Amino acid sequence: MQDTARSLTQAQAARRYQLFIDGKFVDSRTRKTFESINPHDRSVVAVVAEGDKNDVDAAVKAARAAFERTWSSTPPGERARFLLRIADLIEANAPELARLESLDAGIPIALSTPIVGECASIFRYWAGMATKIHGLTTDAMRPGQYLGYTLREPLGVVGGITPWNGPLLMASWKTAPALACGNTVVLKPAEHTPMTALELARLAAEAGVPDGVLNVVPGFGPTAGAALAQHPGVDKIAFTGEYVTGRLIVQMSTSNLKTVTLELGGKSPHIIFDDVDLEAAVANALFGLFTFTGQICAAGTRLLVQETLYDRFVHRFVERAQQIAIGDPLDYSTRMGPLASEEQLRKVQRYVEIGKKEGATLRCGGGQPKAPALADGFYFEPTVFTEVDNKMQIAQEEIFGPVGSVIKFHDEEEALRIGNDVIYGLAAGVQTKDIKRAHRLAKQLQAGTVWINTWHMIEPNSPFGGYKLSGYGRENGLAMVEHLTRLKQVWVDLNDFTMDLFAV
Ligand code: NAI
Ligand code: MG
Question: How many CA atoms lie within 13 A of 1 on its CB side?
Fold first, then answer.
């Protein structure tokens, strides 16, 4: 296994991808292309057709036609079979998908491999859901006189706009539930990492999914993304990305009042009390912060540590952060790969300078690793600031890199206050052995997900989304069904009763 991932890369020139519209791979109307870069060495991994307004329009029309022609009337059990076939094909192609994900996004292969497996599970979960979506009877107010019932109907065309940090996972989150609910999809993957969304389209076609049901239009945000968000033929946008972009999406959605769900950034507090087992707490904090090189919206970036544990925690945390195996994402021993783009590298460097100026103590990292083999990539060392005040910019703003801020707190009340004192509310976590305290905080923390003595637990059935500027709406599970369908109320008179209000 170990050598396979490598030798395939070296042997391969840049791949070429077209847009996927109405069941076919096609060039963009403008014939423009863009390059997707391997963050490990800046080589070009793919040359990709660049979709624009007219391509998005063609994709939306194809999706609308497929919705009306087949998908909305395809029996749910049939839809489930298509989704199960996609899941099987994801599994059958898992080594290649994991490799492409690592090449394009810099995710270590040791992580991208299980994540591809997770994508198959997502399709299976939604295959199961497809046959369980239905309305209810609502005759309770006048039993026997009227029959009332609801129909739960698909929305129509759903637009998905995804970020670069977990490309196939994000594509699966946007696609599987929408298709299960009977909608057709136009997906606009992030410009930095378009490959696996297009591979997913290929697999969907191989699974026999009818033409036009899933369309993928790679391109840039202000062009392809904005065209999708504005399009009057799109019924809903599911967006993941920055909150500034999220606001624009909401503004653009007003053309036809399409519904929007927003999964935006975070600055999640990870609160660690002095009653924990130190080694377990440190391992959990490392996992929460440095997974995906810190490029996860739900990363535990603010480590709130009780003052009585603070020195011991910091010592061990910094020691272990420095031991993280940074390297080529295609090496199975790598635990932390590069940042996804040069832009992201510059952003992280800028924040490290800000942190130093603000007076935080830089305890480790803060620059690019020295190993010559990593010199061409967007690598950055695991970086820990201590003596951080929660008012500092590095504690308030989403850095999206391997940079953590350790903040000291005195007691539960102060931990809660600092934990909630941020514009975001995506996730929060508590480590303690005191179960009463854990549940108290779970209730009081303003976040869409609270992890107790764990981190990054997200399953296809667990609603995921934010409070405050982390967005609204929930993805996954039954909550997502609500966002991807609408209810119709039907009333039937059972007794030939005519309300003849105007009888003369
Ligand atoms: P972004 O929000 O600009 O991009 C996310 C997606 O939105 C991409 O597909 C992009 O093409 C699209 N987009 C951008 N501008 C658009 C517009 N005007 N209309 C429609 N679609 C548009 O995020 P970006 O620039 O890639 O990352 C910047 C920062 O955002 C990161 O440093 C991080 O702080 C945050 N972020 C958060 C993510 C999360 O998972 N919550 C994921 C990615 C980024
Ligand atoms: Mg790339």
Answer: 11
Q: Which of 50, 191, 263, 381 is catalytic?
A: 263
Residue 421 has pLDDT above 90, yes or no: yes
User: Is residue 197 in contact with ligand 1, taking CB distance under 6 Å?
Assistant: no
Closest CA to 110 of 438, 288, 336: 336
Phi then psi dihedrals of residue 46, to 5 deg = -155, 145
Average pLDDT of span 294-322: 98
Residue 229 Cβ < 6 Å to ligand 1: yes
Residue nearest atom 8 of ligand 1, based on CA coordinates: 190
Measured at the CA of 165, the angle between CA 22 and CA 41, to 5 degrees, comes to 100
Instruction: Judge if the beta carbon of residue 243 lies within 6 A of ligand 1.
Output: no
- Ligand 1, atom 13: closest residue by C-alpha: 221
Instruction: Please compute the mean of the pLDDT values over residues 22-51 and round it to a whole number.
Output: 98
The minimum-distance atom of ligand 1 relative to the CA of 264 is: 41
Q: What are phi and psi of 304, to 5 degrees?
A: -95, 115
The tokens for 60 are: 């939306």
Is residue 7 scored above 70 in pLDDT?
Answer: no
DSSP at 8: H
CA proximity to 111, closest of 325, 377, 383: 325
Residue of 384, 370, 289 lying closest to 327 (CA atoms): 370
Measured CA to CA, the distance from residue 153 to residue 181 in angstroms comes to: 8
pLDDT in tens, 354-396: 999 999 999 999 999 999 999 999 999 999 999 999 999 999 9
Sheet with 157-161, edge to edge strand ranges: 24-26, 19-21, 214-216, 184-188, 157-161, 236-240, 259-263
Contact 273, 376 (CB under 8 A): no
Regarding the beta carbon of 265 and ligand 1, being less than 6 Å apart is answered yes
Asked if 404 and 385 touch (Cβ cutoff 8 Å), the reply is: yes
Alpha-helix runs per DSSP H in 207-271: 226-230, 243-253
Closest C-alpha to 468, from 405, 424, 410? 424
For ligand 1, the distance from its centroid to the CA atom of residue 498, given in whole angstroms, is: 56
For ligand 1, is residue 161 a contact (CB within 6 Å)? yes
What does pLDDT average to over the chain? 96
How far is the centre of ligand 2, averaged over its atoms, from the C-alpha of 172 (Å)?
18
The pLDDT assigned to 139 comes to 75
Q: Choosing from 297, 381, 398, 475, which is the catalytic residue?
A: 297
Residues in CB range of 478: below 8 A, 6 or more apart: 461, 463
Mean pLDDT calculated for residue range 336-364: 98
Q: Which atom of ligand 1 is nearest to the CA of 220?
A: 11
Q: For a substitution probing ligand 1, which of 234, 245, 264 has the most ligand atoms within 8 Å of its CB? A: 245
User: d(Cα 171, Cα 241) in Å, to the nearest integer?
Assistant: 13
